[in-house]
Amino acid sequence: MNAVYQRAGTLRGATTAGNKPRYDLSNPQKLMIFVLSMALFGLSNILLEIIPDIHIGPVDISVAYFVFIPLTMAALFSPFWVALGAPLGEIIFTDLLMGDFSGLSEIEGFIQMFLAIYIAGSAIRNPRNGVQIAIGALLIVVVDKFLSAAVDLAKVWVGVEEAEYVEGLPESMLLLEGVGFGVDLIISGILFGILPAMWLIPALHGKIEPLMGMRPRVAGEPIPGKMPNSGLFVGAAVLLSIASFFFAFLEAWDVSIGAFEPEFLEEYGNGFLWISVIAIVVVTGLAIMFFRKAQHKDNR
Question: So where are the chain's domains?
Answer without folding.
Answer: 10-298
